[in-house]
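Exercise 7b. Backbone tokens:
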């Protein structure tokens, strides 16, 4: 399975490592050049620098063939845009988004995100 993860923070980093260990093909997208430089020693060609909320970067990452697109940034608006672009522009079958503000979870579902995960909501 080919999985694109946007956001190489703690959530994206650990998810990418887990999925790669399970044998999945992963592309991790991160816009912070310094973070990409550090993580490239571990992820090699499986990490790229760029703004994953843009069509150009998602196209370069191979979103047209991705089975799943996961948005794990710390920004709900970016995560929503990433999932919507993957769904509407690339017609991807499954999108998953990290939701930082649990009040946004219903909005994500209403706008077509297949699954959302809210760490804050899980604690309540």
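Sequence design result:
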């Amino acid at each position: 399975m080919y999985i694109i993860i946007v956001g190489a923070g703690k959530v994206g980093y650990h998810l990418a490592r887990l999925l790669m260990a399970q044998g999945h093909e992963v592309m991790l997208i991160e816009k912070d050049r310094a973070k990409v430089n550090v993580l490239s020693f571990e992820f090699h060609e499986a990490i790229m620098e760029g703004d994953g909320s843009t069509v150009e970067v998602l196209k370069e990452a191979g979103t047209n063939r991705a089975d799943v697109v996961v948005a794990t940034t710390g920004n709900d608006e970016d995560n929503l845009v990433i999932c919507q672009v993957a769904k509407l522009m690339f017609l991807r079958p499954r999108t998953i988004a990290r939701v930082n503000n649990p009040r946004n979870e219903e909005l994500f579902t209403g706008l077509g995100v297949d699954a959302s995960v809210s760490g804050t909501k899980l604690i309540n």
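Instructor comment: The CA atoms of residues 1 and 73 lie 22 Å apart. The two ends are 33 Å apart (CA to CA).
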